[in-house]
Specification:
Uridine kinase, AceGlu_kinase-like_sf, globular, Asp/Glu/Uridylate_kinase, 10 helices, 2 domains, 10 strands, two-stranded antiparallel sheet
């Protein structure tokens, strides 16, 4: 089957949007990476930001130094305050979409604080329509801050069980990296990376330097370090088919990851 633009347009005009031939033609179209030289960094809410200045100040200094050589989109997690809101809202029997709005408000607060810490270095926070200006910020100062929660709000797809929003800040940051066609997605946490069990509670937990999505699921580790839906997003991705998890409490780890070093855990699509 020919996959020229004219053929694809004809299919789009005359076929269902779920037509197999149309989907095949659309998938065969040439990919375009919007920000191929940029990396998305997700700063954990509970793991980093909630720790305050002891954790955040050194990371801010590292980001400022790294932006001399790297273009960065810096997303923020929500953390403990969001979990408290989820607890109250779930107890009130409010739906997933409302919880998504509440979680987004906390990620927004964290982005605002991080943006203020970076303001004197010319690094700004953007949100909503401001995301369209990201290329300009990257061209001028090599970095920009955004809230990691995807803007689904009341349109958040409910989870299979319960009312906790399944797509939270890990997913939001990853989706931005994939849609922009970025070169890397780095999750900054408070652990070395992925372990066979929770290293905070199990002294026998073993560090895993590299693993595939399928291997994680087979080992029952699918919800141990990243939000569960992120694994399927990686598996189905076009551009960002691996992510890296590093300990941001160790100075230099983020810089090494940005330089392409294998620090922490790398999770691959296959």
């Amino acid at each position: 089957m020919s996959n020229t633009t004219a053929d694809l347009e004809s299919l789009l005009m005359h076929r269902s949007l779920t037509d197999p031939e149309l989907l095949e033609a659309a998938a065969a179209a040439e990919n375009f990476r919007i920000l191929p030289d940029a990396a998305v960094i997700k700063i954990g809410g509970q793991s980093v930001i909630d720790r305050g200045r002891a954790a955040l100040y050194p990371l801010v200094d590292e980001i400022v130094a790294a932006r001399k050589a790297h273009k960065m989109l810096i997303g923020t997690g929500a953390g403990t305050r969001a979990r408290h809101l989820y607890s109250i809202a779930a107890g009130l029997n409010l739906p997933t979409g409302v919880l998504a709005q509440l979680g987004a408000s906390v990620a927004d607060q964290n982005a605002a604080m991080l943006g203020q810490l970076l303001a004197k270095h010319g690094i700004s926070m953007v949100d909503g329509a401001g995301l369209s200006a990201v290329p300009l910020y990257l061209a001028e100062v090599n970095a920009v801050v955004f809230s990691g929660m995807p803007p689904y709000k009341l349109w958040m797809r409910p989870a299979a069980e319960g009312v906790i929003p399944p797509y939270r800040t890990d997913a939001g940051c990853y989706l931005l990296a994939e849609q922009f066609g970025c070169r890397a997605m780095i999750f900054v946490k408070d652990e070395k990376g992925l372990y066979t069990a929770n290293p905070k509670t199990d002294k026998n937990a073993t560090f895993i330097p590299k693993i595939s999505v399928d291997e994680m699921k087979a080992k029952g580790l699918q919800d141990s370090i990243l939000e569960f839906p992120v694994l399927d997003l990686i598996k189905n991705a076009t551009h960002v088919r691996e992510v890296q998890v590093v300990n941001g409490l160790v100075p230099g780890n983020l810089t090494r990851a940005l330089a392409g070093e294998h620090v922490g855990t790398i999770i691959t699509a296959n």
